[in-house]
TrEMBL record:
The keyword Cytoplasm does not apply. Signal peptide: none annotated. Keywords: GTP-binding, Nucleotide-binding, Protein biosynthesis. One of its GO terms (molecular function) is GTPase activity. Residues 6-261 form the Tr-type G domain. The keyword Zinc-finger does not apply. Pfam families: EF-G_D2 (PF22042), EFG_III (PF14492), GTP_EFTU (PF00009). It comes from Pseudolysobacter antarcticus. GO terms for biological process: ribosome disassembly; translation. This is GTP-binding protein.
Length: 462
């Protein structure tokens, strides 16, 4: 289905492990018509957790991407890991979206990664949406107060649970019905007051003539400004398990979440170090191409897959693109969009699109793809990744596999910006560094499962 940049929504689902991000991702794909039925973590048939290691742990260990076409909009969803050990891919995804949807478990409330993701998205200038999942149970009334006390009064419900958590009632567009707690009319008034006060002319019009006198565009533009400036963090309620609120969440994405021209502009720089200066990328399909690679997948069938977000220009099949300040372009022989592990060939990618190219060895994580030397030395403002805190020394279990190990480690470091490898000459050890014991255990398991390299490990020598 053809669509414009204004019709695109890019949303990353983040949050603590176990809050139900993957189940919500699956429910949305089903309700949105992308899949005939919602996948199940227990059955191991989800779109997002397709890696054998993810099925083993029953948790996301990497990001997964899929899209929904609904009501003229093209909605790109990114499911991310909840484990802190795998926050590298999660933070990378936040660099590619306008909206960060922080999912909260109604039963557990605010958890460690809830706080981290709220703070990170705010610092990065990404619009935020709070999604309370598992509303069939849990104390949603108390959770609203907890969210507001922790993250500020700008957190306001845009709908509320009703009928014992079996459905939700709208508090913004058509505020009617009875919620399980609180007043729908009061919730509506609070969110409208919050929206109109961001813009002086809208506020004056509202005070003079009331809400009914505001045009749809006035209210919409003020809402987007609130999201950009962090003046409003909407709270919505769902149950991925029962489907309550899922269709309403999709409607909210279409009507209210920012498109690529409405979110905060990407933070591109030209040059390095202290000499780097901000540059503007405009979501204009007719301009030079600027795209940033935020994910690398080493696929056993397709080969190296480089996933990027287009910020400016149009990438078409057979186009010639440069990588960073490289002098020799590569040809876009095939252009893909992703649906979990599936790669669907497309003819072009416009500003706001998330797409991928295959088998281009020189492309790396955070590379900028462009079609003119005018954009040489462009790069996004570096992401603030956590320090690697855990290390192991490894060696091959069988002699003669050292080269195979080196190639496999290179591929793993390409995929995860928080996984690094070092050869320590003084002790003649190969060290792997990561964010925790689980992080490195999964990487060692992948060496064996993906690349057939078995290693032994021990603590590094002092």
């Amino acid at each position: 289905m053809p669509y414009t940049t204004q019709a695109i929504r890019n949303i990353a689902f983040v949050g603590h492990t176990g809050v139900g991000k993957t189940s919500l991702f699956e429910a949305l794909l089903h309700v949105g018509g992308t899949t005939p039925s919602a996948g199940s973590i227990d059955r191991g048939n989800t779109v997002s957790d397709y890696d054998p290691m993810e099925k083993h742990y029953a948790h996301s260990l990497n990001t997964a991407i899929a899209s929904i076409d609904r009501d003229g909009c093209h909605i790109n969803l990114i499911d991310t890991p909840g484990y802190a050990d795998f926050c590298g891919p999660t933070l990378s995804a936040l660099g590619a979206v306008e909206t960060c949807a922080i999912v909260v478990n109604a039963h557990n409330g605010i958890e460690l990664n809830t706080r981290r993701m709220m703070e990170y998205a705010k610092a990065r200038g990404v619009c935020r949406l709070l999604i309370v999942n598992k509303i069939d149970g849990g104390n949603c009334r108390a959770l609203i107060e907890q969210l507001r006390e922790t993250f500020g009064p700008e957190c306001l419900p845009i709908n509320l649970p009703a009928s014992g958590g079996k459905t939700v009632v709208d508090c913004f567009f058509k505020p009617s019905g009875v919620a399980d707690f609180g007043s729908v009319a009061e919730a509506h008034q609070r969110i409208v007051d919050q929206v109109v006060e961001i813009n002086e002319s809208v506020m004056d019009h509202y005070l003079e003539a009331g809400e009914q006198a505001l045009s749809g565009s006035e209210l919409h533009d003020a809402f987007e400004q609130c999201l950009r400036e962090g003046h409003l963090v909407p709270i919505c309620f769902v149950s991925a398990r029962t489907g309550a609120g899922v269709r309403e969440l999709l409607d909210l994405m279409v009507k209210l979440l920012p498109n690529p021209t409405e979110g905060n502009p990407p933070q591109f720089l030209k040059g390095v170090g202290a000499d780097a200066e901000p540059v503007v990328a405009v979501a204009d399909a007719s301009q030079h191409v600027i795209a940033d690679v935020f994910k690398i997948i080493n696929d056993p069938f397709v080969g190296k897959l480089s996933v990027f977000r287009v910020y400016q220009g149009t990438i078409k099949k057979d186009a010639q693109l440069f990588v960073d300040d490289g002098k020799k372009p590569f040809k876009v022989t095939h252009l893909y969009k992703l649906k979990g592990k599936d790669h669907i060939e497309i003819a072009q990618a416009i500003p706001g699109d998330i797409a991928a190219v295959a088998k281009i060895d020189e492309v790396h994580f955070d590379a900028v793809l462009h079609d003119s030397h005018d954009e040489d030395n462009f790069h996004l403002k570096p992401l603030d990744f956590p320090q690697r805190t855990f290390s192991l020394a490894i060696k091959t279990a069988a002699r003669g596999q050292e080269q195979k190990l080196a190639i496999a480690l290179l591929k793993l470091t390409e995929e995860d910006p928080c996984f690094t490898v070092e050869h320590r000459n003084e002790s003649n050890e190969t060290l792997i560094h990561g964010l925790g014991d689980l992080h490195l255990r999964v990487m060692i398991a992948r060496l064996h499962e993906r690349y057939g390299v078995e290693v032994t490990s021990h603590a590094p020598k002092e």
